Amino acid sequence: MKTLTVLVPAYNEEESLHYLYDRIFSVLATMPTYNLELLFVNDGSKDNTLSIIKQLREQDKRVSYVNLSRNFGKETAMIAGLDYAKGDAVIILDADLQDPPELIPEMVQYWEEGYDDVYAKRRSRKGETWFKKATASLFYKTLKRMSQVPIQENTGDFRLLDRRCVEALKQLRETQRYTKGMFSWVGYKKKEILFDRDPRISGETKWNYGKLVDLAIEGVTSFTTSPLRISSLMGMGVSLFAFIYMVWIIFKTLAFGESVQGYPSLMSAILFIGGIQLIVLGIIGEYLGRVFNETKRRPLYFIDEYNEERETNVELPF
Ligand code: UDP
Ligand code: MG
Question: What is the pLDDT of residue 9?
């Protein structure tokens, strides 16, 4: 019998967990031919999330959990979950029920047909402001143009992954993770299904614009070095312009002499070039920062506990 793992990263989700449990298992009840595992990764929640998960585990041994030592963020929580998932296929699902579990049977069906990565693409984004939609779409367009890896637009982390994909993702152990890009990067046979994303069932989104900007920069710097290339091209363009301008000034001075003038042009040139230099330094800094973080080679996360048995304390997966 094949095993399906439903992987749920959870951070302060106490209100939705019971609904989530009920909905997932009422869906999975329609698929009696599989072993099931519901794996929660508690990402350092500050509310009762962990005790609710433990309570569910008491009632139902199909529930298991990994408790991280602090809040590491969703990207890291997901890799922790993939490390501990036992399933032949892993379905990643948000704890707030924005990703309807009712899609799971369809995903599994495609998986049985031989697809390795069945991802759910949003037909609509209910409960999100037009500003968020617009910025998200702009970001995807830019990223797609800059990087060689095609990144699926309007697709979250809600997807079914075959064991092959899971093993591949487990080998990508970079500290600053942009999982959305990694799903594409590892390749394998992909299948898209469409769905309507619901507004979250309770609580608030953990994303704010600061974090989204971080994620966007993460997305760009982890998947393409083209900003560095653009900087070089920009530098060349500006120097070429400066050279032509210089020739013109020398010619003008020789031909017509020079009464002291040119404060505005001098000032704008200095400011313009100074600005460009700062931007380019910043871009180089972003990449250097990544190099700095990756070379430390720290483990991605620490486990506080795993189920009750603490089975895997012996073989921490890194
Ligand atoms: N999450 C997490 N760690 C965090 C933030 C979020 O594990 O630091 C989980 C959260 O519990 C939820 C999922 O990631 O299951 C998506 O979070 P959220 O709903 O806040 O994001 P959104 O749906 O708004 O993109
Ligand atoms: Mg959500």
Answer: 94
